[in-house]
Amino acid sequence: MNWITNYVRPKFSSLLGPRTVPDNLWIKCPETGEMVFHKDLEANQWVVPSSGFHMKIRANDRLKAFFDDGAYETVDLPEVATDPLKFRDSKRYTDRLKEYRAKTAMDDAVVVGKGSIHGLPIVATVQDFAFMGGSLGMAAGEAIIKGFEVALAEKKPLVLFSASGGARMQEGILSLMQLPRTTAALEMLKEAGLPYVVVLTNPTAGGVSASYAMLGDVHIAEPGAVIGFAGARVIEQTIREKLPDGFQRAEYLLEHGMVDMVVHRHDLKAKIASLLKIWMKSDIEALADSADAGSTEERAAPERVDAGAA
């Protein structure tokens, strides 16, 4: 009986027994409840094909889809103190960071890349909501500032994809300090006349929406993105009134002049490239016109001198 127990029975068990299925093989659409095959969703840039619902997308996946041929160079980011306040809630802040770094394979919530879109060289900064809700701490703040510095040094436009719940409470006032610091860095970019385009993704909230995320030259929102400072429930409890349908959604903000356009994720690359090419061409023509005017004045000056001498 040993051959039946040790060989035949395990074979039948392996053929007829339950098979393990990966947890992420099928993903449920939050809007319609439809189950979508993981690979189909990934190939569609994490947009549900039937409903058009824009799901959250990882930073590296966004950069690959955004840059030409998926080719880009990651910018090295400054190192910062890991846990300056020695913060602890239900667990130590250092343990939380280790957990998210292992889960996301990222050092922090922001990635900066250099590449081209439709042949135009740009710098792109992306916040990843998967890393502690895209919260803004010292490391994320330094990364955003580094993106501005690289764009300024290389005279390239900067495109920033925001996705954040706000400041990181584990870093307290040091997190809030990143708001004026990043704002000062983007002002340097604007003073240099370089374009700064912000793509507001779901969600963009808290101090991020009160600083660099709403200070772009052009504000583009993805469909259905939640954009605001405080949450809708907090606002309702404060003003004791029911908020309008779709409040803080991208389409609502477009109707009320808070964003310039709402663009499908598949069309972002082409739209941003066309805007930047128009912008950069006008800057080049302005520089050329000023150079021509200067050379004309230089040629005319000796003639005026000669005429006066005569």
Descriptive keywords:
about 15% strand, 2-enoyl-CoA Hydratase, Chain A, domain 1, single chain, two-stranded antiparallel sheet, about 300 residues, 7-stranded mixed β-sheet
Task: Walk me through what this model shows.
By secondary structure, the protein is α/β, with parallel strands linked by helices. It has 2 domains: 22-55, no CATH class; 57-277, 2-enoyl-CoA Hydratase, Chain A, domain 1. It is built from 10 helices and 9 strands. It has helices spanning 2-16, 38-43, 59-66, 93-104, 138-154, 172-176, 178-191, 232-239, 250-255, 268-309; strands spanning 26-28, 35-37, 72-74, 110-117, 120-127, 158-164, 196-204, 218-221, 261-262. The strands form 2 sheets. Strands 3-4-5-6-7-8-9 form a 7-stranded mixed sheet, with helices on both faces. A two-stranded antiparallel sheet has the order 1-2. A hairpin with a 6-residue loop joins strand 1 (26-28) and strand 2 (35-37). Helix 5 packs parallel to helix 7 (178-191). The longest helix has 42 residues, at 268-309.
What does the overall shape look like?
globular
CATH topology heading of the largest domain: 2-enoyl-CoA Hydratase, Chain A, domain 1
User: What's the total helix number?
Assistant: 10
Largest sheet: 7 strands, mixed
Q: Trace the largest sheet across and list its strands.
A: 3-4-5-6-7-8-9
In total, how many beta strands? 9
Mean pLDDT: 88
- Gap from first CA to last CA: 126 Å
CATH architecture grouping of the largest domain: Alpha-Beta Complex
CATH superfamily placement of the largest domain: 2-enoyl-CoA Hydratase, Chain A, domain 1
The SSE string, one letter per element, is HEEHHEHEEHEHHEEHHEH
Provide the gyration radius in Å. Answer: 26 Å
